[in-house]
Amino acid sequence: MNRFQLNFKRNVRPTSESIRKCALKTVDEWRDYYFSNVKPEEHITELGRKLYVKITEVIEAEVALVTEEDCIALHDSACY
Prior knowledge:
By secondary structure, the chain is mainly alpha-helical. The protein has one domain (9-78). 74% of the residues lie in helices and 0% in strands. The chain has five helices and no strands.
């Protein structure tokens, strides 16, 4: 998620601050608080959809380009 900045403050707001503010006791309490006071559930759902596309299209295509030789060369260069 960091690579695509989907968990940056501009997308999810300062999460640690929100957790302290609501003094949650359960995950369900946190979900209710977050969706009522921080970001709507639809926004987080859309971020999840974006992440899915990034994983299944962008990263999958990049991984398909990696060869065994690439991995060996990377390992060899790390040894020096």
